[in-house]
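Step 1: inspect the first sequence and its tokens.
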Amino acid sequence: MEFHVILTLAKDGQYATINRVAAAQPGNTRNGLLNWALQKAPEGFEGANIVFFSAEPNLLRGEQ
């Protein structure tokens, strides 16, 4: 199943937003998706504050 993942980070007055689609397998967790997104953060954002995180199924209403 695919998930639309959005993560916004803040560090030293700078912001970065990761907006990606991730494939997840049964048994994967939201925490796993968060860690995946953190690995996609730009250089220099190690240890940044998480401002926003969302991981939702990448489906339109009515799709299965």
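Step 2: inspect the second sequence and its tokens, then contrast the two.
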Amino acid sequence: MEARRSGTAGTVREITEAVDAGPAATGGGAVALLERLAGLGFPADEVAASREGWVLARALVPEGFDDYLTHVGHALDDARFVALTKRATEAAAWEPDDPRVAELATAMADRFLADPAHLKIVTGLQARTEVATRYKPIALHGEEQGSAAARGVALVETRLRAAGIHIPRSGTH
């Protein structure tokens, strides 16, 4: 049992190191992107949540992770995208039925649709197999079920699906 724990701890450490060292648009890996998030004014807890989500993404969909980081890096050059993402961070504190959640979700989905390169942030981590099984934990990482943030994610996904973008649903492949 101890060897198994040690192996698991080693795997988590290896994944974390891979996240820290992985290539990205900035050439400096995920750490450079996390530093960019902080430099753009994202709260420390959001930067930490991003790092945790990236560790999860690297573990679940390693084949698309480096490209994903590249797409995030490019999106961080888009001031409108950054502003909407910051607002989405603030929305986590809103009540789920707050009308601003739907307004923000519409604006986010419209931004994704306006710049197809940004769509790769949403679609890039879809594994070739077991799509929904892998996608949902990444998409909802850190989001409390029934929260404004979870509702916002669901609304963005619904709008993107309505526009013809393939977004996995739980229980589908």
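Step 3: confirm your contrast with the notes below.
The CA atoms of residues 110 and 116 lie 10 Å apart. The chain has a mean pLDDT of 77.
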